[in-house]
Every structure is written in structure tokens, then in C-alpha cells.
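Recap quiz, item 2
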Amino acid sequence: MAIEFSRTEMLLPLAPPLTERGAVKWMRENLFSSTLNIILTVLGALTIFWLIKASLPWWLNSVWNAGSLSECRQIVTANAGEGATGACWAMVRQWWGAFIFGFYPPDQWWRPITAFGLLFCALTPVLFAGQKRRLTIVLGCVAVFLLVTLTLSGAPAVAFALAILLVVGLLGLAQVQPGKLLWFTLFFPALCFWLLWGGSFWGVVSFAVAIGLAITAAILFTRVPVMNLGFAVIVALGALIVGASLVNFVDTVSTSMWDGLSKADFYPGYFADSGPLLVVFGAIVSGIVWLIAWIAWALVGLFHVIGWIANLDLSLLIDSAYTPYIGVGSVLAAVGGFVAARNRMAGVSIFAGLVVAAAYWILLHPLVIEALSVVADPSLPRVNSDQFGGFLLAIIIGVTGITFSLPIGILLALGRQSDMLIVKSLSVGFIEFIRGVPLITLLFTASLLLQYFLPPGTNFDIILRVIILVTFFAAAYLAEVIRGGLAALPRGQYEAADALGLDYWRAQRLIILPQALKISIPSIVSTFIGLFKDTTLVAFVGLMDPLKGVTQIVRADINWKGIYWEPYIFVGVIFFLICFGMSRYSMYLERKLKTDHR
Amino acid sequence: MAFATDAPKDGFRLSMLIYDTRYRSYTIQIVVLVLFAMAVAWLLNNTAQNLAARGKEFNFGFLWQRAGYDIGQQLIPYTNDSTHFRALLVGLINTLVVAFFGCIFATVLGVLIGVLRLSKNWLVSRLMTVYVEMFRNVPLLLWILLSYVILSETTFQPRDFRLTDEMVAAGQAPLASMMFFDSVAVTNRGTNIPSPLFERGLGTLDLGFISLNLTFWAVIAVIVGSVWVNRRILASARVTQEATGIRPVTWWKSILVLFAPVIALLVAMGFHLEVPTLQGFNFQGGILVAHSFTAMVIALTLYTAAFIAEIVRAGIQAISRGQSEAAFALGLRPGRTMSLIVLPQALRVIIPPLISQYLNLTKNTSLGIAVSYLDLRGTLGGITLNQTGRELECMLLMMLIYLTISLTISTLMNMYNKSVQLKAR
């Protein structure tokens, strides 16, 4: 019997060949898979090698202690020999204050620092809504950050007390009711304004009271049936004020417009000496002006007639010259009160809240401030807008612009998607105009033209003007981005919302916008990043941005003349960190909100 | 017999203006229109009052006054005796020139980087990621300022290019040397490049308000003509191929048609390059390209290329894998798969955002003010505005021009987009 050979146990698998495992395999697959890839790898490696060879000595020979650029160069030569290059970070050591704060008084630096720390306290409830762990982490980080930076900047004890009290309070609140932290976010703008520009603290308190009143009023009027009467009264009062001032306004404007027109200010021939091309332009402009003036004029006539018909003699209240307006106001007020009492519409109750807040602000706010100032006067020294600069300015403009551009952008996008022809064409006109011109021209409008467009004698803060224009700019871009999201939603979503019987705003708020905004998150965030980068352009209207404003001052300093890599790298790295952080956050948000399985 | 009944025909009540969705939109629109008209009237009224208070009038007559300032870079004749309108034109052309070069270079670089970023090569794709993130997350202004400063502060003075007899004797080389076979010199005053000259040019044709450079237009006309003839050749080759199945050899015809006429014309007109040479303290001859222009083009290119790279990457990734797998199954090589299958489809995704990048680039040229590049913003919105003090007219005109440029570009690109768009049934 032949002995048959057969194995009874399995052979152990051989190890894969050397070229098919570990680092070698990875390199074969990822670096040297084909001729082209080998060439690319070599080129890439050469690029990296060249970059390192050119810049490594420069980084290694960095000088951190010197009084001027020539001193730096001497130190580098002494340390590394003739012809060596080295970075001179001593410049940053000397000037970092200006890069961060501009000309903000150094003994007040604790104010922007505190505001910056509290900014995160205000942001986290929005960014990480209701997530107790993340909220605690962020607030803890803010507390540590404030402790360290405030100590370093030599802040007064009051600042410590204020900051720590606030952060600890918020931390406590985050443990008990994380949702309630949003109230701080609402209150933050006033606090921030007070910290940065100074003034009396009672302004902040009074602002908080106004917000509280507005919200309480709005909630009361929608929820408590007993308040129907008061509700009607409030809305009627508000409508009266708005109506009267509207009519008054139309009258004034169109009367003086009429005067202006009768003097042929905008007559087409006026442009005749500007050459043939401009006559056409002039004719178009004058035509539009004429049309608008006529509409306004006709409206005034209409209001006069209504006022005369509904003339309720209230001349005891206001100068008799305004009687017609009171009449119109009363009609509007009656309609408003009627609507309000019957329907308790959400929009009207917001209006009522605003009326209450405005009434408080106009009538009681000065009295409250005065009364409180008698008791104590906790005020901070005022800091002027031209002392702001550096990243402080960039962050103020960026954060405010981002906050306000989102709601405006959403409204514009909805307007553009709307079926109403006039609303739609106005939105399209606004969006296309803003998107068609460079931001720089809008900033110049803020600095040069606003003085023409506003009533004579109006002059308000340049930072505020710039913020307004930057907000409009970002809003137009956001509107297009959000429109993309709205268009990307399947029609079925709109139809389903209609089928459920939701009205327009409910459908938008509950069905459409949450989905549309989710789709457009990446583009929204890149618009925000663009806005933040664009804050550097404020240098062209005389504000001191970190890039051109401060760097120019540094480079004009006799000690640091001829330095260029260091300031630009310093500023660039900070910008990079902020913008890169924002784009990473948008990725996190996308992942978090991902509900489908595409 | 009707199954569906019509809506009940009630009489119109005033309250329907608010409660009935059929009428409410009219109410809202009229209110909005009135508010808008009032806002515009208010603005115009304020403007009129402010103008009157300042003793100014709204008038474009200043455009025909003498400008009185010089512009470094001028592609149409301009002296400081010319009018402000002429300065405006020079500025406008400068804006368009930067935008043109920026768009072309940024597209080339951006497509290259976008494709490389998708490459399977780990090292190269990482490098490109670093490039994109670095340029996207730092303000454009920084890149403009940095390139300008590097160009104007690290380059040598013209005299450093000089080779003196003593240096020859001592065997030394000059500090700096010219590039590209001694034809380009980068100094701290600008970049000297060769200029094309013609011994027997065709001269210019004066049309009153503009003069045409006939030599230039002749070259353009010949090139356009050659391209057209070449397309006819290719078309007839395709017809032959369709009919017989054999494609005639055309490459030598194409080369002949494309290059021979232009070369013949250039030789006939005595074309030669005038190379800049060092004479005295500066370079003479050739064209001096200002650093502000170079810096603008470099910065705009690098910055926009990062955005275009992302657009290209997204476009290519949007094409489903099945397409390239099908191409491989048909036996196409990777290069041809890319050029015949993937890119044509990706283009449809790429073009719309690419248009807005071109628009952004064009608008970003207004940052030239940072390096004193006299574009539209620098002439009309800068020196002219300051000299004449007519903020309102200058700014409005400038916005109008930018708006026109933007709308023109987007219209043209949208037309192109329509032509490559998938023809849906």
C-alpha cells in the first residue's frame, strides 16, 4: 500500500513579500505607482527641500531681543556668521500691542480682553446649543484665558471681579439650565459696547431692562387673553406714532423735493455740458427722479385727503398744524388695534414689544440713568473710535457684520424667491448692485458719500458706518448662497408645507429654512470667512487695520525700516488661524446636522 | 355637470386686503413700493440739500477738464494735459488688463492645482492642500502687499547689473544679472522686458477720438483668419471621416495654416525684439513693467488660483465614479479618460462658480490702491476725486462702470455656460 502523503495541518500563511507590506507598500502605492507619479514625487520632494533650505536658517536664527532691525542683523551675524539670514521677531515683541489693539490705551487693554473672552461666552450658547459638556469646556477655557490675560495685562481688581463673577455665574447656569444661556447672548452687545467704548454702566442696565420689557410685553400679549385690551391700546399707540411721523415725513420730503424740482435742479439739459454720452445718462437719472417725486407728491395729496376726512380733533395733544397727520394716525391706529385685538398675530405682538421698548427708551431711559447716577456712577473712561485698531478692529467689524448679515441675507433671499413682483425686483436690484461693485467702493461710500445721503448735520461714528456697509455687502452674498439652498430643496417640501396648512412664515421657519440653511452651511461659512478677510480693507478709509494700517506704521518706524517678512507672517498666521478655525467649525456643523444617508 | 365648484363669489370686503392671501400680496407690495419711494425721495432730498449747503452742483462737466496728473502705466496715449475722462479710460484699461492676465494665469494655475490635489500621489496632494488652505485663509491684501514689497525691496538697483572693466580684470561677476538670455531685467524700479518692434510697420489710422494701431490689428486679423481656416480644414476632415471611415492626415496642414501666415507677416513687417540694455544709470529700450502691476497679477493669480482649484476639485469629484470606470472599461487611457469623459462633464459643474471667481478677481483689482496701481479706482475714484472734490459724481460713475463690467462678464459667461450645459429633454 502506497503511502499517500497528505498534510494534516494547514500551512502558516507566508508573510507578504517585502514590497507588498508596510511602509514599502504604502510608498509604492502612494508615491511611486507610475512614471508620472515618480516624477511628481521627486518634484514635490525637491520643492519641499528647496523651501526648507531657503527658510530653515532664517527661522532657526530668529532674534527675540533687539531694539532695531540693524541690531537684529548684527546679532544674527554674530551668532551665525557673515551672510546668514535670521528672522527678527523682536519687532513683534515691541509692537504686538499695536497689532492687537491699535492705539487703544494700554492701561485699558483689559476691557477688550474681557470683551473678547465674554464674546465666546455669548457665542457658545448659539454654536453648541444645549450641549452641557461643550458649554462647560468652553466657559472653563474662557475663565482660564481671562485669568491669564488679565493678569498679564495688569488689569485692576474690579476687572477681575467683574470677569470672574460673570464667567462663574454663567458656568453655574450652564450646569443647571444650559438653554437659558441665550439670554446672556442677547444682553452681550450692550455689555460689549460699554466695555469697548466706555461710558456709564447704567446704560447697559437700562438696555437690559428695555430688552426685558420688550420680551415680556410680547409674550404677555400673545399668551394672556386678559391683555387683549391693553394690547389693542399699545398697538394703537404705536401705530399712531408711526403713522403720524410717516405722513409728516412724506410731507416734508416731498415739499422740499417739489421746491427743488421746480428750480429745475435735475433738468436733463443740466448734463448737456458733460458730453453726448452723459446726456443720456443724465436723462435717465432725471427721469427716475421725476417719477419718484411725482409718486411721493401724489401720496402726500392722498394722505391729506384721508386726514381731512377722518379729522378727529386732537389738536390739544399736538400743534394744530399737524392735525391731518393725527387724523391719519388715528385711522391707522384704529385699524391696528382692531387687527390686534381680533387676531393676536405674532408679528403684531413683536411690534407691540418693540413699541414698549421704544417708549421706555425714549421716555424713561434718561430718567432712569439720571436717578441711578445719583446713587453711584460706575463708569469707564471713554475711548474714541480712532484709537481702535489692529485685530481688535477686525474682530469688532467681523463679528458684528457676521451677526447682522445673516438675518438680512435670509430676508433678501426670501425676497428674491418671492412671488411678489415688486419685492422680488427690489431684492434682485439690491443684491446685484452690491455684488456688482467692489467692497472698496462701498467703503468709500461709507466714508465720503454717507454725508450726502443723510440729513444735513448728521455725523455718526466711522466704525459704525463701515460696519453697516460691510454688513450689507456680506448680506448680498449670503442671500445668493441661501437662495442656492432654497432652490436645492425639492418642490415636495414646499408643497407638503402648504398641504399642512402652514402659513408663509411658519412654513419657512419650520420646514424650508432649516433644510435650506443646512444645505448652504459650507458656503455661508466661506462667505463669513470672506467677510472677515475683507475687514482689512477698512485701511483704505483711514481705519487702522492690522495688515496695512499697523504694518505701515511699523515699517515707517526708523528702527524697523525695511522689515517685511516678519510683520506679514505674524498677521497672516493670526488671520489663518481664525479663518481656518471657522472652516473647521463648519465641517463639524455639517457632520452634526447630517441626517440623511447620501 | 360640473364636479368642482368654483370658489364662493363673495363681495369684496376691505378686510380681505389683510386676511385674504389673494389680495394680501398686493397690499404688501404697495406698502413696500411706497416705503421704497419714500426712502429714495428722502435720500435724494438730503443729497440735494447737502449739495446746496456745500455750494456744489451735480454735474459731470469736470470730466472734460485738464487732469494734470501723470499715470505710470498707460496703454493708450495720455499726458497730464489730457482730460479727466481720458484718465478714466486709462484707469479702466489698466483695471481690465490686470483682470485679464489675472483670470488667465489663475485659471491655468488653479486647474493644475485642483487636478494635482486629486492625484493619487500622497506627497503632491498634501502639498496642494497646504497651498490651497494657505492662500484661501489669508487676506488678499496681504499677498498684494507682500509681493509688492518683495519685488521692490529685495531686487537690485540697475547699477548692480553693471560689469565694469575693474570687475572683469578682477574676475568678478556683477551683483545681479539679467534673466532669460539677457532679455529680462528685474530691478527695484520695475521689470524691463523686451518690446516688439517693426521696421516696416503699417502705421496708425487716426479716427478722430481714437487711433488704431494697424500693425497690431493686422496681426490679430491674420491670426483669426488662420484659426478660422484651420477649423474649416478640421471640419472637412471630419466630413471625409464620416463618409469613408478614414481620417485624412491634417496635422501638417494645420501647422502650415496656423503659423506660416503670421510668420510671413511678421517677417514682412520686419519684426524684431528690442532688448533692454543698461545705459548710464538705468535700463533703456524695451518696456518697463511697474512692480505694482506685477505684484497685482502675482497676488491675484495665487489667491484666486486657490479658489479655482477647489472649484475644479469639487467639479471633478461631482462626476460619478461609474463614468471613469466605464471609460476604463472601454480601454481609454487615464489621460484620455480625463480629457474626453470626466472634464467635459465636470465643466458644467465648474463653470458657474468659476464665473463668480472671475467677477471677484475683477472686483479685487480695486485693491491696486494699496500698491499705488492706477486703475479705475486710482484715477477716477482717487486722484480725480481728490482734485475736483466731486465725490458724488466720481463714486456714482465708478460704481456704474464696475457694475457694467460685472454684468457684462457674467452675461458673457452665462451665455457660454448655456452652450455647454446639458441639453435637457
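The longest strand of chain B covers residues 190-193.
Chain B touches chain A through 71 residues (CB under 8 Å).
End of item.
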